[in-house]
Specification:
Layout: H1 2-11, E1 14-15, E2 27-29, E3 35-39, H2 67-77, E4 83-86, H3 93-101, E5 104-109, H4 113-121, H5 130-139, H6 151-154, H7 160-172, H8 177-191, H9 206-217, H10 220-244, E6 252-256, E7 269-274, H11 284-287, H12 289-294, H13 299-307, H14 323-329, H15 335-355, E8 359-367, E9 370-372, E10 375-377, H16 379-388, E11 392-401, E12 425-433
Parallel strand pairs: 3-11, 4-5, 4-7, 5-6, 7-8
Antiparallel strand pairs: 1-9, 2-3, 8-12, 9-10, 11-12
């Protein structure tokens, strides 16, 4: 029964309430969380000219930080010698930005994609002849085919041999060339699948079926290699841009396959900055399932990772020190949505309280205000109220307007049939360790 309810929840949508009233750059006193300041993070860091500059956008990872958010926190709150920590690191932006400003960092994430993205994003300018690389792929005798029961559902049979050859070659590499190839090959593989590239979740649509039909009518083999060559060139340019920012040699640790709900920090860190999974659960493992199979991960391992995603994994109940949590829980009438609401907050609040014991200076938590059905949930205020009990003081909440989004736009929410009013702002809660 619970699985049926979870399926219903996945088909529902979280909405934002109307935009808050505020004047850019000025404080607004509102409710228990006091200071809220409007900001447009993308305009605060002149040395990073755009949100897609350098290697901050080499792969379409869902709901990732824009680099200016991390950069703003580091420039405003960090001091030389501090260590940065992100327990829900996703794309790994916190680490990629930390290098630019010379800070050590530690990144955790459930999704092992972080290894590939991070190591590609921070590499030095590689000495790669992309024409020679394409030639070697074409002539390679090595093959790799994922052991995936749904492989033929997501790829036409005609495409599998050319993909297997390209991936066999990629898996055989041991030098810097590997990281010049993996992300481009991932992007091309996604294009040559039935997956809809306009949707973050792995989804077969009318658009994607038509895409494959059109590819099969053309000289798709030539198109495959041309697209791969173009993607390699694009990545090399992005790596060059990133290295223009003069990233520093720092100490860092990447832990993938890590469930932040069950893992303890071994050493102190100075600043925790993160964006926890969305209340509606973006299903990040499912979003990257296609990539993970081609990267060589086993089906059983991928399934186990999916089971650990918030809020679908069972969590221990804790005492929650937030009146708003209970106030808004009581407004939720549907039992399966109430269960997921409870599970989500028990998970993230317990995680922040536990990890916070090893955080010496600041916790910076980036969340979007949301609705469950018609009930607006002030996630930022609930986090603030709860963590005050553990000695954290609320410094400020920055309200950042979402200027653009990667996910598809729609005038009507396909789940409810109502007018689409998705998240328009995101809130950066800044908490300081109490005296």
């Amino acid at each position: 029964m619970i699985n049926k309810k979870l399926k219903e929840y996945r088909q529902s949508t979280i909405w934002i309430d109307e935009e808050p009233e505020y004047v850019e750059g000025k404080e607004v006193i509102k409710g228990d969380s006091s200071n809220k300041i409007s900001i447009l993070f993308r305009n605060t860091i002149p040395e990073i000219p755009s949100t897609t500059y350098g290697t901050f956008a080499i792969y379409k990872y869902p709901a990732k930080f824009i680099p200016q958010v991390i950069a703003y926190v580091l420039k405003k709150y960090a001091k030389p010698g501090m260590k940065i920590f992100d327990p829900f690191a996703g794309y790994g932006t916190a680490g990629v930005v930390s290098r630019v400003y010379g800070y050590d960092y530690e990144l955790w994430d459930l999704n092992p994609m972080i290894n590939i993205i991070h190591d590609t994003a921070v590499m030095k300018n590689p000495k790669v002849n992309f024409l020679d690389l394409i030639k070697k792929i074409k002539n390679s005798q090595k093959e790799f085919t994922p052991r995936w029961t749904n492989l033929n559902f997501w790829f036409p049979e005609d495409f599998i041999p050319i993909l297997s050859k390209a991936w066999g070659f990629a898996h055989s590499l041991t030098d810097e060339t590997k990281y010049a190839l993996l992300i481009p090959l991932i992007n091309v593989t996604r294009h040559f699948s039935y997956g809809d590239e306009k949707v973050h979740k792995l989804y077969k649509s009318k658009y994607s079926r038509k895409k494959i039909e059109e590819l099969l009518k053309k000289d798709w083999k030539s198109q495959f290699y041309k697209m791969l060559e173009k993607e390699i060139c694009k990545l090399l340019k992005k790596v060059w841009e990133y290295n223009r920012l003069n990233p520093k040699q720092v100490n860092y640790k990447i832990r993938s396959g890590i469930n932040a709900l069950e893992t303890k920090l071994e050493d102190n860190v100075n600043i925790l900055i993160t964006s926890p999974p969305y209340l509606q659960a973006q299903e990040y493992i499912r979003s990257t399932k296609l990539e993970l199979f081609w990267l060589g991960y086993e089906e059983s391992y991928i399934k186990e990772l999916s089971k650990k995603e918030i809020p679908y994994t069972p969590v221990n109940e804790i005492k929650i020190y937030s009146n708003k949590y209970f106030e808004y829980r009581d407004k939720i009438k549907e039992n399966h949505l109430k269960i997921l609401y409870e599970r989500y907050f028990h998970a993230i609040l317990n995680t922040f309280a536990a990890l916070g014991e090893k955080v010496t200076d600041y916790m910076c938590i980036f969340v979007g205000p949301a609705k469950i059905r018609t009930t607006s949930i002030p996630i930022d205020d609930i986090i603030i109220e709860h963590l005050k009990e553990f000695g954290w003081k609320h410094e400020v909440t920055f309200i950042d307007k979402i200027v653009s989004r990667v996910m598809f736009e729609s005038n009507v929410n396909p789940a409810s049939g109502e007018k689409d009013s998705r998240i328009k702002t995101e809130h950066l809660v800044v908490l300081k360790r109490g005296g």
